[in-house]
Specification:
893 residues, alpha+beta, Beta-Lactamase, 29 helices
């Protein structure tokens, strides 16, 4: 194909959208017409072939059935003829008599016979009689085993039937009958629209019509051997029946072409009416979309675009939606452009800037905000490094180099501006920068946004300070302290120096809070912290650990002597009284000190040892400093450390025993309850007093586990003696931590349900100072326990600072009179105090229990005063479970 023609065809086929639509529509119709024509032709051909095959099978089936029936009819007629001749017995008579009779009989019957000629042969195959016009000629042509005989001179084919026949004295002979096959024979079996021909060895011997058989493409021709009852292999030697039949074409090809062409024309019309016109309108509407887009790109107004898109918007379809989207997009673009303009104008009012830098850092473009940040009139053409703080220039240059090298696609960083006389503080700037990349991948410049974050930076510093410092004293908190200790230990390990860690706790600070109030207590803590901080070195750290506890970190110490000098200086500085609200207040403290690395090498160990040393200092009379290493060397210190280290193991292994001391009814003397007491027997120190290990358990955080162990073992014991019929209640001391634990009540209910015990058999003893230290929370928890059925007793009553209103809100069941009052019962003031407590309890409807009853006289005096229950050595000492059970059995006798 010539290039010019190819270009024209390409231009035609790839022209406008409408031309493309017409071309594709015409091509579709053409392909559809060819497919329809081919399919119709193939269908017509199949129908014709199927019709010819069907008619051929019908003809073959018909004549395959007709010919055997003919054979059967002829054979039956031949047997009947043989039977009649034998029945008449003409052949048993002499020839002179038999032949005339037989001839007369045959002449009379022969017109009705199927057979044209007859021969009778004797046993030597000699013809003794013949009948028929051709019988004389047939005698010489007849073969002994012949089934068919063709006589050329007569142009006649005969079907031969042979039967044995009795000849009388001459014995058995043969009867031979000849059936001639002629045109009339074929006319008898011919069907309408068929033409039959019979040939024998290629010689036509008969036909059903005088005219030649039909020929042509629409003519069926079937050759069927005339069956004479022989084997299939001998059929070819017999005559052949040729069947001709002209097939009438139901649908001529000319009619087929006309109908197919009409269908194609109708289909083309329908496609054009249903698709072509729609396609033309659709192409026109799409063209308007493109034209409208070009108009908008050329800067036409919105009205021109709307007018151009009007045809596209006529229908509410995808094209109409696209046109509407074009209009909306145009409005959005205009709105965005307007917004961008507003943003740029607003940005110029803020302390933010948009800049574009060259590879060398020269400012190529900058919004007015950059001039405001750096306090210049015009920064274009100036290197950005001229306005950067000298300490931050290298960092900024390094980050810009990563953009130039393609290592990063964006950077965010903060830096300071060069100090200027117009600004009294450092100016901090945050920027986000991107590279300007050419299409060849080379970075040609940098663009980004910068803003003044000075105030944000100052706020962040303030937030960080608040997160790492105590809000009241402004001292470092635990987080900052632990971080500084880690750094101090790391440096000390590298320099082989010492580090001192001191735990400081104010003595009796709760008394100050209770007497002067919490606000005064807070001011006291601040004053104490300021006094303490004033005596420290610049590198030391004083942190508030919580409440009235402080931690002192002494890093980079050269010797143990230097650490002791610092602690002595602290002690001396805190000797003068503190001035609080114009009043002098003398405050004492207890300090525990440890030294790295001799007392420990990690933070947890150092904190634990310092806490032990501080606890030991308090146990030695408070207001003193105790070093852990000194504590280890002293006998009391070693015992204290031993108890602390073995207490956890004793609690975990259940070595704390549960003992019981009876509480009896003051009137009947019957055992009313048993107070549960904790006892610990150590292998080295023997029995350890509860007054020693219980406060220690509270300090070490073991009181919860210890209380749980005592509670479970006492309930197990109660389950045993209740099973024996001893209905004795339990009086169990609970700590403040247990009382204020939210799940304490649910836990008690679970333990009672597991053992099947009644809730009323348990009385929970709470010391007055614990129960009334937080009246609101304590009252809520006591109410919850009493609703669950448990009893509440206030232990050591009279030793605290409770008020009557607090006692009323607590709503306990019992008051336990402290042993200190019972021992002064012989004194008039002591007796009056006990009487007042009993009267007060009766006023509130409470039962009273007197502790420390050691003789009969004291017991009687308390009965006279109205005490309800008595407890003391006079009735029974604290004893293990087995001894208590024996005591119960003795009392019940």
């Amino acid at each position: 194909m010539e290039p010019c023609l190819r270009q024209r065809l390409t231009a035609f086929f790839s022209g406008g959208l409408r031309r493309q639509a017409y071309w594709h529509l015409a091509l579709t119709i053409l392909i559809a017409a060819v497919i329809i024509l081919l399919a119709a032709s193939w269908t017509l051909s199949n129908i014709r072939e199927r019709d010819l095959a069907l008619q051929q099978n019908q003809l073959l089936e018909h004549y395959s059935a007709v010919l055997p029936r003919r054979e059967i009819a002829w054979s039956t007629a031949a047997k009947q003829a043989q039977s009649r001749l034998e029945y008449l017995r003409f052949l048993e008579e002499p020839d002179a008599i038999a032949q005339p009779k037989l001839t007369a009989y045959l002449n009379a019957q022969w017109t009705l016979s199927e057979f044209s000629n007859l021969l009778i042969l004797d046993g030597g195959n000699q013809v003794i009689f013949h009948h028929g016009s051709e019988s004389d000629s047939l005698k010489s042509l007849f073969g002994e085993q012949a089934t068919w005989i063709y006589v050329p001179q007569f142009h006649q084919l005969y079907r031969v039937f042979q039967f044995p026949i009795w000849l009388g004295p001459r014995g058995e002979g043969r009867l031979i009958l000849f059936k001639s096959l002629s045109n009339s024979t074929l006319r008898e079996i011919v069907i309408p629209q068929a033409h039959l021909q019979l040939s024998y060895h290629g010689q036509l011997v008969a036909q059903s019509h005088d005219t030649p058989p039909p020929s042509g493409e629409n003519t069926l021709r079937i050759e069927l051997p005339w069956s004479d009852g022989q084997a299939a292999s001998e059929l070819a030697a017999g005559p052949m029946l040729e069947i001709y039949r002209e097939v009438v074409d139901q649908l001529p090809y000319s009619s087929f072409i006309l109908r197919t062409g009409s269908a194609i024309a109708l289909l083309t019309l329908l496609i054009w009416l249903s698709v072509g016109r729609w396609l033309a309108r659709t192409a026109y509407r799409i063209e308007t979309l493109g034209k409208g887009a070009r108009l908008y790109a050329e800067g036409e107004t919105r009205e021109a675009l709307v007018a151009e898109l009007e045809p596209a918007r006529q229908n509410a379809d995808e094209i109409g939606e696209t046109a509407a989207a074009f209009e909306q997009m145009m409005e959005t673009i205009q709105s965005r452009a307007q917004e961008q303009q507003y943003y740029l104008e607003t940005l110029s009012l803020l302390e933010e800037a948009v800049v574009e830098l060259s590879v060398a850092g020269i400012i190529l473009r900058a919004s007015p905000g950059w001039n405001k940040i750096v306090h210049r009139k015009d920064a274009i053409g100036v290197s950005i490094f001229e306005d950067i703080h000298a300490e931050d220039v290298e960092m900024l240059q390094t980050q810009l180099n990563t953009l130039f090298a393609g290592e990063k696609q964006q950077i965010s960083l903060r830096f300071r501006l060069r100090p200027q006389w117009v600004v009294k503080h450092e100016t901090w700037v945050e920027c986000q920068l991107l590279p300007n990349t050419h299409k060849n991948g080379k970075v040609t410049g940098i663009r980004g946004v910068l803003r003044d974050i000075t105030q944000t930076y100052l706020n962040e510093r303030q937030i960080t300070h608040m997160a790492l410092h105590d809000a009241l004293t402004e001292l470092p908190n635990r987080i900052l302290l632990e971080d500084r200790i880690k750094n101090a230990l790391s440096i000390a390990e590298r320099n082989r120096h010492l580090v001192g860690v001191c735990f400081i706790d104010l003595d009796n600070f709760k008394v100050i809070n209770d007497t002067l109030g919490h606000k005064a207590g807070d001011r006291l803590l601040v004053t104490f912290a300021e006094r303490l901080r004033a005596s420290l070195r610049s590198g030391d750290t004083l942190a508030r650990w919580g409440g009235d506890e402080f931690v002192l970190l002494l890093p980079d110490m050269q010797s143990m002597h230097a650490i002791r000098n610092v602690t002595e200086k602290i002690v001396q500085s805190l000797q003068p009284p503190l001035i609080l609200d114009g009043n002098e207040i003398r405050v004492t403290f207890s300090m525990g000190a440890v030294v790295y690395p001799s007392d420990g090498v990690d933070i947890e160990v150092l904190f634990s040892q310092a806490d032990r040393a501080m606890f030991f200092a308090k146990s030695q009379g408070r207001n003193q400093v105790c070093y852990f290493q000194d504590m280890e060397r002293s006998e009391p210190g070693r015992r204290e450390l031993y108890i602390q280290s073995h207490l956890t193991l004793a609690v975990n292994q259940g070595k704390i025993e549960t003992w019981f001391q009876p509480i009896v009814d003051a009137r009947s003397g019957k055992c009313h309850a048993a107070e549960v007491l904790a006892r610990w027997h150590d292998g080295e120190y023997g029995w350890v007093s509860p007054s020693t290990f219980i406060p220690m358990a509270e300090s070490l955080g073991l009181i919860g586990e210890l209380g749980l162990h005592i509670m479970k073992s006492s309930l197990d014991a109660a389950q045993v003696w209740h099973a024996r019929g001893e209905k004795v209640a339990l009086a169990v001391n609970i700590s403040k931590r247990q009382l204020f634990t939210p799940s304490f009540t649910q836990h008690l209910l679970r333990e009672f349900d597991e053992r099947g015990l009644e809730h009323s058999m348990l009385v929970l003893e709470v010391t007055e100072s614990v129960a009334l230290s937080d009246v609101q929370n304590g009252a809520e928890r006591v109410t919850e326990l009493r609703k669950a059925g448990f009893g509440i007793a206030i232990d050591d009553f009279g030793t605290g600072y409770s008020s009557l209103s607090q006692l009323h809100e607590m709503r306990a069941d019992e008051l336990k009179i402290d042993i200190s009052f019972v021992r002064r019962l012989d004194e008039p003031s002591g007796r009056s105090m006990v009487q007042a407590i009993i009267n007060l309890a009766q006023l509130f409807g409470l039962k009273t229990v007197a502790e420390g009853v050691e003789d009969a006289a004291t017991a009687q005096k308390l009965r006279d005063l109205g005490v309800d229950y008595l407890q003391g050595y006079w009735f029974g000492k604290p004893m293990p479970q087995a001894e208590f059970l024996a005591w119960l059995e003795t009392r019940s006798r």
